[in-house]
Amino acid sequence: MLRVKYQPMPRNTRKPSWLLTKKQVLAHRYLQIFGNALHNPNLWHFNRRSVANATAIGLFCAFLPMPFEMLAAALGAIWFSGNLPLAVAWVWISNPVSWIPLYTPAYLLGSWILDKETAAADQVTMSVLIESLAALWIGCLIFGVIAGACGYMTIKGLWRLKIRSERADRRRRTKLKQN
Q: Model-level pTM greater than 0.85?
């Protein structure tokens, strides 16, 4: 029988020239205002704490009715040591398509808290939301805190379940090897 030695296909290991390295990103002149804060490993790695913090920050910032929520999420991730790319990605729950369904309940809650007259839920438009910014902000802050807390606890719980499952699998494999 003829044997052929397996030779994997050569991979292109060169990175594209347009792709920045971490060193180039951290040396960027506009990012120098953060000093060494961007060197925190939790900003770039996926671990239980950084992912949970990023989820809470991103979901909270998604409810902020303002432009540049991604900037607020990035600053929050730096401040609270959350995963920076993930915090910014969570903000995209809030986008022009989802604004009315996302902000209408917050507007109604804020109007109820301020005891203001509201438009019917099916009559809420962006102009109605802009006219009553105080009610919108109060409702959005409450919804943002609730969403952030729920996201934080969900990620922590799912991470613990994953760890328990991996430990149980490891014990099962060890028991099978011993028998």
A: no
